[in-house]
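Researcher: Quick sanity check before group meeting.
Model: Go ahead. Protein one:
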Amino acid sequence: MGTYKRLPVAFTYGAGAWLFDEQGNRYLDALSGLAVCGLGHAHPAVTRAVAEQAGRLIHTSNLYQVPLQEQLAEELCAVSGMGKVFFNNSGAEANETAIKICRKYGHDRGLATPQIVVMEGSFHGRTLATLTATAGGKQQESFAPLPQGFLRVPYNDADALGTLAGANSDIVAVMLEPIQGEGGIIIPEPGYLQQVARICRDHGWLLAVDEVQTGLCRTGRWFACQHDEVLPDVMTLAKSLANGVPIGACLAAGEAAATLTPGSHGSTFGGNPLAARAALAVLEVMRGQRLDQRAAELGATMLDGFRERLDSLDGVREIRGRGMMFGLEMEQDCGELVRLALERRLLINVTRGNVVRLLPPLIISDEEAEQIVAGVSDLITSYLSGH
């Protein structure tokens, strides 16, 4: 179906931060499959785990015990501080699970129409419920009628959330991204997440944090909410969890962890042996190589490099970043940069029309990081000068 405006290139294999097309040309990947391939392409530990598991057992369904899934759940809870995990196959599904937890939490307390507060500029997925939770726009209009039960406030504005709290007694949860990725790499003020968590505690609401793009070392901590020392009630993961093998996870703590009961939710493929084994390999590498620390240090160096090269240019509005997550905001729409970068054998993304989004693999070398900074900076400089 005509759902994608694909670029005119097809890749046949990858190695680390590099992808190779059908003609053997090499491209530096500064996007890592939209933050999925955090360990780069064809990582030997993931390759070995997938190959070995494919030769043993791929799927049995969740009618039976899945020891690898249980081991993965234990490891995720250990690194996150959460209590239980539900596995599915994508970020949207993980966020659907979070929405169901929040709604059932409300119904269990006698609320007939529980409301979830979401944020302007958010992105939570493309299913009907997650699309509704996502920031509004023409795409929502095309799929009406949408599910009810969502209220929207400005992002990075705890006062607006506090005002809403006094005006609606059916609110059961707040759902947000600790950094808005698709929204343009919007990083809230320090302490914002703590303020939101405090409001949730004061009103008996759940705090659901969407870490699909930000989680698993991307921002320089295991999870972006840890920058504000916040432990949410619900946390969603996907993207980089298995380095390209489809998997999603919804983690929960406290009362939220006990909300779903047998028969209230399920997934045929979720957390099957193949996906779980791949995810275990990813976590082992991230932990062993301290990729959270590596992302923090290398990301800070790259951010300094972008600012040094681009901050003074007319046409550049702001350079934002945390860890290995960068947003270079232009004064005007710049979608053409994606094609121009491809011609230079560099893979980037533009979101919100005017924000160059960069999500490099966490395993890049210092030299590759400098190549990305130099390549993207030269691309933008040339573009803004009209050459």
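Researcher: Fine. The other one?
Model: Protein two, sequence then structure:
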Amino acid sequence: MSIGDGTTLSGNISSLRSSYQTLTSNDAFSKAVQWAAFNKSPFLQACGIEAFGVDAVQDLQKFGNARATGRMVRYDSGVYGIRGSIFATTPTSFHVGRMGSWNAQLVEGGDEYAWSWYHLAQSEYIPVGDVQDNTKGNIDIKVQKMQGMKQTFARDLNYCILGNSSAPDTGVLDPAANYGDLPNIISYTQTRTVGGIAKSIGTYWQNQYKSCATIGGGGEMDRPLALRRSIMDGLNDALSNAEASNDYLMLGTQGAWQYYDRLMYADGKGSGAFLTKDSYDAAGVPNFAINGNPFIWDPAVTIPYNSTASTECIYGIHIPSFAIAIRSEENFKFSGWEEPRVHDQYKTINATLSLRYCPMVTAMRPHVVFYNMPACPD
């Protein structure tokens, strides 16, 4: 038997069924899941726009033909590959590592640094009886499960990169535990070891940070005006470094976004125009423009670790030196639905979706975080 790509399958009915599912679903599902990931949340949408272009983010067919530009998303092979058996079961995504313990930053030679890979995985199981009882197409359980896996995986990936408290409880294996998520990479505290380098040993590995605790006071407009002044002050400090260019993604909490919305509303009423980024508008991502750069908010954004609780923050991510590195051979890898083996006691069809990735920066100084903003009362 031949299928559309010229592959010839042979064997008995059992091997034909399982082989056919695997061969025809691998590429299609991986692209669909990747496209869903870069469409589900504002932050990953922004990464998709920068990496693949606005047209690809809007259209699955165009996304399938797009190639990452290296902005915000990069595919690497690398020399550090850590992967091991899955010893945990959970209803949501989970991170796995070699022998259950490893550090996400590897150092060798005494003066080098390198990022390594996180391995985010999710498994779905379907009792064989559930599929057999719906053979006439009443309910397509495989499609339902695949949609759930795709959407949940995209959500969990966003949570893990942004350090959200709702991310899977992954113990010592996830980015937060190894200081590899955004609140640690771009932090107001400079005592972390990020990418194998202790921030305390040199200013070249310290990001910019600015407390905005005193932006309050006065009338409704004074607070956002003071916030804008603080933002421009922090950005100017970041831009004074040789590595920096005025190419930022500003990412804030909902309260910080609403502060800035007041300012944009007043300015728009006066000038007749709201300042936004055209490419983000085309993709339907709500945004404002700060110094020519897009400002978005994402529900998963959390304040930097150890900053004052119940406050707001904005991360100034320097796009040329930030990336979600994806190991090329583990790019949203879908194993295909696997039928139960003859000797399995419990008859289930299962599939696993996995990704080896790492949020990373190649230069630290251009990044900036604005923290300890008074909680927005709106």
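Researcher: One line on it for the slide.
Model: Residues 1-5, 8-26, 79-91, 97-113 have pLDDT under 50 and may be disordered.
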